[in-house]
């Protein structure tokens, strides 16, 4: 047995434990949208239900509601027994197996559940690793669809400004090219076609009847529709499909637009032979107050991308669904095409993901306690609790749609002091741009929602007066 010392590159274990966990993190880990060495605000030491146990740099401890649902995914709270049980039972059976040439019950059952709770026209399911990958697959699918029909000039996608569809290569190309996060990568991504962002709209509830209506500037809507029709006619033979986040743009600013804009784009797709791709990764599963955000416009996409809440935030997982017509076309070998969708992630159809996603869907669609009872209750709480924020001098606007509450400031958010002030009041938030926003877990109680609203309002008042 050799007694030679390990090479230097393999002998650093002792130094790795020096300092607090936040110190050790800053020494080596790279976090989302941050610089190397950037310090994180808190360490998570536990998560249960809607609450996080947090420890700060000075050892200060906090219990805070996860008002972000951990980037919009943990809709059932952390460690929900039904999800943990599904994960454990599947792990004991088999945690993973390749999906090429093999199948398994968790994947089949998840596909059946997804199809049972989405429009009838959608018949085929591609199980992906993450939301961004599902968008990659959707874009490739649309290109293959057009090429199989002999429309070789249709290589671009039409979308709207302000959108966000993921950080991998193809999705970056259909994110906002100016105000998005990917301006440094223009040489890496394809150039696509962008309509102006649709005019802003608000979902307004009548206090007496609880009936709602969409409000937007009618002249601005009409002008946008005319521009969209003209632009579509000009580029009809260049476009493979239209991709957008229906009704609510997430990372682009929690920005809502009128459903009739979505209806027009569905009409233009039908007229010109384009595919409509709905990116419902953030908006699906009831988050906006409808099961799918497309339901606001009563339209059915040709391709649907789902993620985030699909697994209840337990692990990464996503799905792309498409119509039978799209699937049949891409499965042909016309015009030299391969007759197969050429994408195959190693962890596609991972049994753990499939099992926990099925359990999550069962919770979401429970007739007694599912999203359709949870989201309206949260929306009412957000509307009541955030109203006072509109009176603060630094606040430009307060808006609520489903289980999404947004306080927009008249300046960029000073993230660290706002976050710390909110945590001190019992809620974890992660502001960006000029927005302090929340997307609570659906299992949040009325008291939890009230705490979140008071934390956001109090934090803004403390930091900005």
UniProtKB/TrEMBL annotation:
Superkingdom: Bacteria
Sites where the protein binds pyridoxal 5'-phosphate: 131-132, 279, 345-346
Record site feature (Participates in the substrate recognition with KAPA and in a stacking interaction with the adenine ring of SAM), residues: 33
Catalytic activity as recorded in UniProt: (8S)-8-amino-7-oxononanoate + S-adenosyl-L-methionine = S-adenosyl-4-methylsulfanyl-2-oxobutanoate + (7R,8S)-7,8-diammoniononanoate
Protein's cellular compartments: Cytoplasm
GO biological process: biotin biosynthetic process
GO cellular component, one term: cytoplasm
Pfam family, one: Aminotran_3
Residues that, per the record, bind substrate: 71, 164, 308, 344, 430
Biochemical pathway: Cofactor biosynthesis; biotin biosynthesis; 7,8-diaminononanoate from 8-amino-7-oxononanoate (SAM route): step 1/1
Needed co-factor(s): pyridoxal 5'-phosphate
Modified residues (N6-(pyridoxal phosphate)lysine): 308
Top class in the EC scheme: transferase
Catalytic activity, EC: 2.6.1.62
GO molecular function: adenosylmethionine-8-amino-7-oxononanoate transaminase activity; pyridoxal phosphate binding
CDD domains: OAT_like
InterPro entries: Aminotrans_3 (IPR005814), Aminotrans_3_PPA_site (IPR049704), BioA (IPR005815), PyrdxlP-dep_Trfase (IPR015424), PyrdxlP-dep_Trfase_major (IPR015421), PyrdxlP-dep_Trfase_small (IPR015422)
UniProt keywords, alphabetically: Aminotransferase, Biotin biosynthesis, Cytoplasm, Pyridoxal phosphate, S-adenosyl-L-methionine, Transferase
Function as written in the Swiss-Prot or TrEMBL entry: Catalyzes the transfer of the alpha-amino group from S-adenosyl-L-methionine (SAM) to 7-keto-8-aminopelargonic acid (KAPA) to form 7,8-diaminopelargonic acid (DAPA). It is the only aminotransferase known to utilize SAM as an amino donor.
Subunit structure: Homodimer.
PANTHER family, alphabetized: ADENOSYLMETHIONINE-8-AMINO-7-OXONONANOATE AMINOTRANSFERASE (PTHR42684:SF17)
Family as reported in the entry's similarity comment: Belongs to the class-III pyridoxal-phosphate-dependent aminotransferase family. BioA subfamily.
Protein's name in the database: Adenosylmethionine-8-amino-7-oxononanoate aminotransferase
